[in-house]
């Protein structure tokens, strides 16, 4: 049996990709509204975040890695969507009620049966997972089908527009902070600290008791980073030797660094900021397949460095990240727009004009 709302339209508006490669754009099209099957829910998307990964998929930037939007996604990107449950599919009546708020993430669903799912803590690597905007239609549409098991409950005290970026950007840096192995009272370096991921990483790191060295450029970024709790701000534009400045502050180097900036220069410099046994966490995803995360073997061996990768988080990680916002500890700095203007927001992202995270309104909340 399917529990349905009275007035679900048969058609909806969606931002659909047109063309391929770097010249690809999107167009607002009218498409059908699908009905959820067993185990699924239908979510009326109110707000969706705009992530750098959306741009990468829309413009085939990861083609060299074998990652391009699949036909099953129907050209609809987006994986930071939040909205209202309007239809509850068979078997989901005990978990979801019409009117509750749900979040749709990069990981749209997992199989629950493979080795990684069965560990109970590592379903991020499910070999049969489906991904929003990659292998299933994403959140750049008014109504989105979601796996009822894997959609996230949005707690009270978190607005839809705040919750959107936590579905990917927020949980990504939250997990990266944990992966850094930096303990309370120890130093964490954040290049690009004033950006969409970096400004959230400052807040999570401070909430965990870490001492944050923020690296970015300009007075606006300095003010933002210090306001969010960075103990030290280094302006890379005005500092001839960033590594030497970090050594002066920390004596032996930082305990950890999270690389959010997907540039060759940052990845090359990052290991030199670390003390012995320090950890580099790679989360920035360059489109250039020749960029490597790491250091020359001599430096790696002599300093016993750790280089780890991290990608989004488990369903439990998302719940934990949302709880930081519900408790008023972590709040994304938002720049708000409309889905209709998606292409212009992508251009602003490319040119570095966005402060914090961009969120796009898709529909009203009622």
From TrEMBL:
Which GO molecular function annotation, any one, does this entry have?
alcohol dehydrogenase (NAD+) activity
Instruction: Give positions of region: Disordered.
Output: 1-21
**Gene3D superfamilies in UniProt:** Medium-chain alcohol dehydrogenases, catalytic domain, NAD(P)-binding Rossmann-like Domain
Does this UniProt record's set of keywords contain Cell membrane?
no
Q: What does the record give as EC number?
A: 1.1.1.1
Q: Which cofactor does it need?
A: Zn(2+)
Q: Organism's domain of life? A: Eukaryota
Residue spans of biased composition, Polar residues class? 1-13
Its cellular-component GO annotations read: cytoplasm
Give me the segments passing through the membrane: none
Sorted UniProt keywords: Metal-binding, NAD, Oxidoreductase, Zinc
Which InterPro entries does the record associate with it? ADH-like_C (IPR013149), ADH-like_N (IPR013154), ER (IPR020843), GroES-like_sf (IPR011032), NAD(P)-bd_dom_sf (IPR036291)
Q: What are the Enoyl reductase (ER) domain coordinates in residue numbering?
A: 21-360
Annotated family: Belongs to the zinc-containing alcohol dehydrogenase family.
Name the chain's protein.
alcohol dehydrogenase
Organism, as annotated: Aspergillus sclerotioniger CBS 115572
